[in-house]
Write a structure and sequence with these properties.
The chain is an alpha/beta fold and 221 residues long. Helices cover 43% and strands 16% of the residues. The protein is built from 9 helices and 8 strands. Strands 5-4-1-6-7-8 form a 6-stranded parallel β-sheet, sandwiched between helices. It has a two-stranded antiparallel ribbon with strand order 2-3. Helix 5 (96-103) packs parallel to helix 9 (210-220). GO terms for molecular function: metal ion binding; phosphatase activity.
């Protein structure tokens, strides 16, 4: 029986109104580096971001991106611009505010999100979600981020639950599904359009059906 539920944040409970590639381009422009828009793409950003999951901010991410380039941009300005762009573009997936509130009547409910402390905290401030969960964990304040087992151990500790009685709900095949499964949790893969279910997923749900279908899925696990 499932007694606790952990959620990912980005692209699970909240999504940006503009594409991530557009947000990065907007941040490069606003941060004083428009000449890098056609040079620093989303793939390069994700590679750099993966190297700094436990950072306090995105400053080292942009410093890494700028390092091989002949650019005068300041990584601090770029990190600030990107944080503002991403945060202001976020909207909750329809129905998830009530979903999380309703689930807390039956389960312990937590959040485990990868990202710098400043960036993810700004999102939670913007969405007003700090008090929506029984426990919140940001990889920037942990020894490691998802898919590392230490990230899921922190979530389980905050929930006060055992892995076998805990479900993790997320969109990323490796960070969320494989990481949670390797840590012994049950897994629910949130699928966007054209996404394929992860092999480790115990159940799947379309993102736009998350609020309607997750309660029944949890009861079936």
């Amino acid at each position: 029986m499932i007694r606790a539920v952990g959620f990912d944040l980005d692209d699970t409970l909240a999504v940006p109104e503009r594409s991530r590639a557009r947000l990065l381009a907007d941040a490069l422009d606003a941060g004083g580096a428009p000449e890098l828009i056609d040079i620093v793409d989303r793939a390069a950003y994700l590679d750099a971001h993966a190297n700094h999951r436990t950072a306090d901010s995105r400053i080292p991410v942009f410093a890494e991106l700028l390092d091989p380039l002949d650019a005068e941009a300041d990584p601090v300005d770029l990190a600030d611009a990107y944080r503002e762009a991403v945060t202001s573009a976020l909207v909750p997936v329809p129905g998830v505010r009530d979903l999380v509130a309703d689930l807390r009547g039956t389960y312990r409910v937590g959040l485990l999100t990868n990202g710098p402390v400043r960036a993810q905290s700004a999102k939670l401030d913007y969405l007003g979600w700090w008090d929506a969960f029984d426990t919140v964990h940001i990889s920037g304040e942990l020894p490691a981020g998802k898919p590392d087992g230490r990230a899921f151990a922190a979530l389980l500790d905050g929930l006060g639950s055992d892995p076998a009685e805990t479900a993790f709900v997320g969109d990323h095949p490796e960070e969320d599904m494989r990481g949670a499964a390797d840590a012994g949790l049950r897994t629910v893969h949130v699928l966007g359009e054209d996404d394929d279910p992860a092999p480790e997923a115990d159940a799947t749900v379309a993102r736009d059906r998350l609020a309607a279908e997750l309660p029944g899925i949890l009861r079936s696990l």
